[in-house]
Amino acid sequence: MSNTSNEKTLLAKIAVFIRPFRFQLIGMAILTVMISLAGVLPPLLLRSVINDVIVDRHTELMPGIITGFIVVTVVTISCSYIQMISMAVISQSFVMKIRNAVYDHMLKLSMSFFSREGTGKLVNRLMGDSTVLQEALSVTSLQVIADLVSASFAISATLFINWRLAIPLYIIVILFALNIKLRIGELRRLSRVQRIAEDRVAAGVQNRLAANLTVKTYGTESREDEYFHTQSSTSLDLERDGKIATADFWRNTELLRDGGHKIVFFIGCAMVLSGTASYGDVTAFCSYAMLLLTPAVRFSLIAQQFQSIKVSAERLFEILGEESLVVERPGAVALKECRGEIHLENIHFGYTPEKEVIKGISLDVMPGETIALVGTTGCGKSTILSLLMRLYDVTDGRITIDGKDIRELTLKSLRTNFGIVLQESLLFSVSIADNIRYGRPHATMKQIEFAARIAEIHNEIVAMPKGYESRIGDPDVHLSVGQKQRIAIARAILADPAILVMDEATSSLDTNSERAIQTALDRFLTGRTAFIVAHRLSTIRNADKIVFIDQGKIVECGPHDELVKIEGGRYRKLYETHAAAGTISEEEG
């Protein structure tokens, strides 16, 4: 596809977001025309002052000319003020509409998209590129209309005043067009690579700040500092190259405008001396020449801005063009009154087509059963949990809940029947109460406190200065990893799910806290199906079924008492090896 076709397609996409503001923009366009028409009058009034008042001594015209100057000035300034305020409001609404659309779309994309794209990169696009795109609706861009009106009038006026003097003026305008054509491609390329470099910096900062504990644990602060400086330096070098290219572009533009105006002026002076033009005509001509050259400068500015806008728009529409690999099928039904009966029927899955992670797993789970998934790191335990919630789709086989293929269910009804607690708890920068009620926004304080008591965190919350209204991230709120985890567990409990998923949910807790929570969870889990990934044998052995997974396959399945009786069994060996320690190592389970 040609660049012209790409630009037309891109403009059409942007136009979809501009369309809601079309009536306001039409009003602004009319206002801009009024400003332009008012702006072309002063040179004519100035010409009349020189030719009619000064040269021909018609002093009676002076009051009318002064009144004309005052009216034009007041109208121009007032209209410009209204235009500036209105365009600021419109452009902000426009960029918010795009941000909302991109963010809403990102939330609907499957996990594979987020696994591929870094969070920092996405934030940089959402906030940075949308801000650049705001320039598409600004006073400067709207000025194109005014410039077209001014330039059209200036071309006609200069031809009318002195066509010979107009020839060098038009040659200069042609040079403006050549300057844009020769330099704009390089400006676009530099803008694109610089935005990509910013993505890398943003992604790197986000990842490393999120993994700050790991950085400190391994004492790699100096290495990370060096990495950041290298990435930042690369980004700044590219930004510098872009600014140098922009400076070259503007040097040519300024030379053409100022040099061109002076050339026209001196040629005009020569005509006055030779008697082929009047002084008033040359003065008016030079004023109109600036009405033509100034728009040429602004056209150059807009052409340069458009390259940045184009790059940012392409990056945003790349996200909007992403399709989720997990989609809700037409006619999908809601999962109501879930009993929690789950069947995995010969399921296969791989994050890439070349490498299969789950290789033909079948498993029957009855309502209310607790299933413990055990196996070496990377064997597929967490992947199974993701497949259950349809964060990814199986590539073969099927998963059913209460006899229904989960691909035939609405995504919302499926996922709201799950409560999930992960190894790394994520809390939002809101109050503790709002964090706990996240999955059940209308829960009462009594219900929130009940969930917190089960999670063994209530007493610690009420001991805080603001209790449940303490805001995560505030200077006076300091939570340990274990406290954060218990808040996450309270959140899952309050959601009152039919199926509970706990992926190393108690790994950050001390033995006493884990034992207390486990006792409470045993009561809470009555009648609920649960899937647990854990390394503590006390958690595993209480499960109704222990599923031992190795390289994407189930090698043993059954209750603890049965599995430990299997001579040479994988689970029995694992249990005997780690019974004294009470936990299973990452390498072995």
Polypeptide structure, described:
This protein has 589 residues and is an alpha/beta fold. The protein has helices at 3-18, 22-39, 41-55, 62-108, 111-116, 119-133, 139-161, 163-210, 212-217, 221-274, 279-320, 381-388, 411-415, 432-436, 445-454, 458-462, 481-494, 511-524, 537-541, 560-563, 570-578, and strands at 342-349, 358-365, 370-375, 396-401, 404-405, 418-421, 499-503, 529-533, 545-550, 553-558. The strands form 2 sheets. It has a 6-stranded mixed sheet, with helices on both faces. Helix 2 runs parallel beside helix 7, helix 4 (62-108) packs parallel to helix 11 (279-320) and helix 7 runs antiparallel to helix 8. The longest helix is centred in the middle third of the chain and has 54 residues, at 221-274. It starts with a helix and ends in an 11-residue tail after the last helix.
Please describe the topology of this protein:
Blueprint: H1 3-18, H2 22-39, H3 41-55, H4 62-108, H5 111-116, H6 119-133, H7 139-161, H8 163-210, H9 212-217, H10 221-274, H11 279-320, E1 342-349, E2 358-365, E3 370-375, H12 381-388, E4 396-401, E5 404-405, H13 411-415, E6 418-421, H14 432-436, H15 445-454, H16 458-462, H17 481-494, E7 499-503, H18 511-524, E8 529-533, H19 537-541, E9 545-550, E10 553-558, H20 560-563, H21 570-578
Parallel strand pairs: 3-8, 3-9, 6-7, 7-8
Antiparallel strand pairs: 1-2, 1-4, 4-5, 9-10
